[in-house]
Amino acid sequence: MSNANDELAVQHFVDYLRIKTVQPLPDYEKAFEFLQSYAMELDLNYQKIQVGIDRHVAILTWLSTNNSQQQQTLLLNSHIDVVPVFEEHWKYSPFGGEIVDGRIYGRGAQDMKCVGIQYLEAIRRLKLANYKPNRTVHCLFVPDEEIGGLTGMNKFIEMDEFKQLNVGFTLDEGK
Amino acid sequence: STPSWWWTKFKQACDNINIKINTTVFPAATDSRFLRNNGYPALGFSPMNNTPILLHDHDEYLHQDVFLQGIKIYCEIIVSIII
């Protein structure tokens, strides 16, 4: 790897893969601790909002320098949870964060812990390059997508806290 | 019809860094369906080319070079949309 920012990005990815946010009993609290400290490191605003019993979302926000309240925001969405594993079929531990021949192994490496970290590491680089956003960027981390989202995004989107984000456009996982 | 501002900017970012986009109708299975149902435009996009699809499979991995390239792709897309 070429530089310190690349090493930092991979380390954060590995740290996130090691948190067992695996259905049906995801360790969400550990993920929120991780995200809160990430927000502090990147100097982003952090909110943790309750959407149901034992269910929360985290929002890490890079505020626009443009004071216009009308300017709609960019929402970068990812889910925290991952599907279960049959550990005996894995060559490497699904929650070990091992890197072998450049391959970063782990449940969530593709779906979709990679994307959550890539959003934040992109923001780190843009801040380092001194970009000043004209739109606010919200990185949203939601629970329970893998069990249908009814106790996660489906709840949050009905709440005033979501409406206040003033979202204009969103990105979410693809393939 | 006239493309929306967000599609124009997203496409421009991809063109800037020469990444080819195959657009498909997204299966109505992820959280973006809640966003769209409530009127928020959403694109499903994960920057994972040259990668076997191992979502929900064992030995799920992402090569670190693909992961790092993805950060650069998001830098381009985010800048295009917010600057």
Distance between the termini of chain B: 25 Å
Number of helices of chain B: 3
Would you list the SSEs of chain A in sequence order as H and E?
HHEEEEEHEHHE
Strand content of chain A: 15-25%
Main CATH class of chain A: Alpha Beta
Class by SSE composition of chain B: mainly alpha
Output mean pLDDT of chain A.
95
At CATH level 2, the architecture of chain A is 3-Layer(aba) Sandwich
Main sheet record of chain B: none
**CATH superfamily placement of chain A:** Zn peptidases
Q: Biggest interface in this structure?
A: A-B, 63 and 44 residues
Name the poorly predicted regions of chain A: none
The CATH topology of chain A is what?
Answer: Aminopeptidase
Label the overall shape of chain A: globular
Question: What's the quick description here?
Answer:
The complex is a heterodimer of chains A (175) and B (83). Chain A is an alpha/beta fold and 175 residues long. Chain A has helices at residues 4-17, 28-42, 113-128, 153-156, 160-163; strands spanning 45-52, 55-62, 73-79, 99-100, 103-105, 137-142, 167-172.
Explained architecture:
The complex is a heterodimer of chains A (175) and B (83). With 175 residues, chain A is an alpha/beta fold. Chain A has one domain: Zn peptidases (Aminopeptidase, 3-Layer(aba) Sandwich), CATH 3.40.630.10. Helix content of chain A is 30%, strand content 23%. Chain A contains 5 helices and 7 strands. In chain A, the strands form 2 sheets. Chain A has a 5-stranded mixed β-sheet. Chain A has a two-stranded antiparallel sheet with strand order 4-5. In chain A, α1 packs antiparallel against α3. The longest helix of chain A has 16 residues. The relative contact order of chain A is 0.23. Chain B is mainly alpha-helical and 83 residues long. In chain B, 45% of the residues lie in helices and 7% in strands. Chain B is built from 3 helices and 2 strands. The longest helix of chain B has 19 residues. The two termini of chain B are 25 Å apart. The mean pLDDT of chain B is 88. At the A-B interface, α1, β3, β5, α3 and β7 of A face α2, β1, β2 and α3 of B.
